[in-house]
Design a protein that fits this description.
It is built from three helices and nine strands, in the order αββββββαβββα. The chain has 225 residues and is an alpha+beta fold. The two termini are 26 Å apart.
């Protein structure tokens, strides 16, 4: 009685062709369906505090502080925001995203963060973002500015700083292993090792095929490399 791999006799050429097809085809499929390498989502944080002196800026003295998280999607052309703040000396009159380096003040590139009535927190999505706004944000040349009745040019501001976006938890898909299926920890780059293991695991005393049992005894069980 034969156990383990089915005993068959094949020519060396047919055996090699079969194993190459078995190993290479999944690799070709994986490459064909691979996701694009370029990123379209960018994440940022900002710490808001008094406006410092700088080019085009009016320095402020205020106890107000705040923080924010932002996500720019250049495929959907959306800008998501979640901003909290407190301690303004005046009443809030506007909140914008401006374009400028940390040492300067610049023009508005996203005209509204939240909507009146003003207040904290501000959570929402602005769209559509323009190419110019997206370029400035990605380059690190943007900041959020909270304007108040005391400081019309902006009471507090915070530069948008790029951070790593949260990554989704990968789903592990088990690969079923049949009586004569072989697995290798790095099969994509070491299919030759898997091919050799096929002969070793299933027994090849007759030298005919990885599934032969020419020695007459029970073939050893198939084992992963």
């Amino acid at each position: 009685m034969t156990h383990g791999c089915t005993s068959t006799t094949r020519s060396p050429r047919s055996v090699i062709s079969r194993w190459l097809a078995f190993l290479v085809l999944p690799m070709i499929i994986a490459v064909a369906f691979a996701a694009p390498a370029h990123a379209v989502t960018y994440c940022y944080t900002a710490a808001l505090a008094a406006q410092p002196a700088g080019a085009g800026c009016v320095a402020t003295v205020t106890p107000a502080t705040g923080s924010g998280t932002f996500v720019l999607d250049t495929a959907a052309h959306t800008f998501s925001y979640d901003v909290t703040f407190s301690g303004l000396l005046g009443s809030e009159i506007a909140a914008h995203i401006h374009s400028a380096l940390p040492t300067a003040c610049g023009g508005i590139i996203i005209p509204a963060v939240g909507s009146l009535p003003a207040g904290s927190p501000k959570i929402g999505v602005y769209s559509p973002t323009t190419g110019g706004a997206e370029t400035a944000i990605i380059a690190g040349n943007s900041y959020i500015n909270i304007h108040s009745t005391v400081f019309g040019g902006g009471e507090i501001r915070g530069q948008l700083v790029a951070v790593a976006c949260p990554m989704p938890t990968p789903t592990v898909t088990p690969t079923p292993v049949g009586a004569c299926a072989f697995q290798h920890p790095a099969a994509a780059g070491k299919f030759a090792a898997l091919f050799v293991q096929a002969f070793v695991s299933c027994g090849n005393p007759g030298g005919n095929s990885p599934n032969s049992n020419a020695g007459g005894g029970a073939a050893p069980a198939c084992k992963p490399p």
